[in-house]
Amino acid sequence: EVQLFESGGGLVQPGGSLRLSCAASGFTFSNFAMSWVRQAPGEGLEWVSAISGSGDSIYYADSVKGRFTISRDRAKNTLHLELNSLRAEDTAVYYCARGATGAHYWGQGTLVTVSS
Amino acid sequence: QSALTQPPSASGSPGQSVTISCTGTSSDIGGYNYVSWYQQHPGKAPRLMIYEVNKRPSGVPVRFSGSKSANTASLTVSGLQAEDEADYYCSSSAGGIVVVFGGGTKLTVL
């Protein structure tokens, strides 16, 4: 059974940093691209970043480029998202998903709140 | 990376059909056959309903179908049921694994 479990969310002050993790199980992790998608309270889905199965190809939304860093640890079957220089508008539930275009599996999400 | 355009709301009575549109550009929907549709109930994670324009994942009812013409994709829900009431989001590849989402459509079953 494919499972994705995000962790690392919480309350952080503007300008602060957080590291989100997504533990994957039930599939061969290195065979799939992985994505982060966020959803601000009461708003729609926003694609944040994606990384290829090998980790060689990485892409970011313009809204987070230069502030967020995606990575994957193939030994631990874990996806990460480093969030730096956080702003109020980064407040959202962050989901990890298996795949990019047509993500069949999603985690339950982790809430990031940026507030002083 | 501009968002795809969806109507904010749609509605239909039980048993009826409803179609939700999703308009993009030649750089996303028009350029790739990687259009997906997601269903999201309040407080839940999104669920993939359609991928690669018109393919249904295992477990998705045949009542859900997808299509694409030029820069516009569509999701049709036939034989509406109460449990279909949810938010629906389209997405498309914008090149490789870069993805763009629509703003979402709230489907109400009257």
Low-confidence stretches of chain A: none
Q: Roughly what fraction of the amino acids of chain A lie in strands?
A: over 45%
Q: State the helicity of chain A in percent bands.
A: under 10%
The global form of chain B is: globular
The arrangement of helices and strands of chain B along the chain is: EEEEEEEEE
Mean pLDDT of chain B: 96
Q: Topology, pairings included?
A:
The complex is a heterodimer of chains A (116) and B (110).
Chain A: E1 3-7, E2 10-12, E3 18-25, E4 34-39, E5 45-51, E6 58-60, E7 68-73, E8 78-83, E9 92-98, E10 105-106, E11 110-114
Parallel strand pairs in A: 2-11
Antiparallel strand pairs in A: 1-3, 3-8, 4-5, 4-9, 5-6, 7-8, 9-10, 9-11
Chain B: E1 9-12, E2 18-23, E3 35-40, E4 47-50, E5 64-69, E6 72-77, E7 86-93, E8 99-101, E9 105-109
Parallel strand pairs in B: 1-9
Antiparallel strand pairs in B: 2-6, 3-4, 3-7, 5-6, 7-8, 7-9
Describe this structure in words.
The complex is a heterodimer of chains A (about 120) and B (about 110). Chain A has no helices and eleven strands. The model of chain A has no long low-confidence stretch (mean pLDDT about 95). In chain A, strands 2, 4, 5, 6, 9, 10 and 11 form a seven-stranded mixed β-sheet that branches. Chain A is mainly beta and about 120 residues long. Helices cover about 0% and strands about 50% of the residues of chain A. Chain B is about 0% helix and about 45% strand. Chain B is built from no helices and nine strands. Chain B is globular and about 35 Å long. The mean pLDDT of chain B is about 95. Classes of the chains: A mainly beta (about 120), B mainly beta (about 110). The interface between A and B is medium-sized, with 24 and 28 residues.
Provide a brief overview of the structure.
The complex is a heterodimer of chains A (116) and B (110). Chain A has strands spanning 3-7, 10-12, 18-25, 34-39, 45-51, 58-60, 68-73, 78-83, 92-98, 105-106, 110-114.
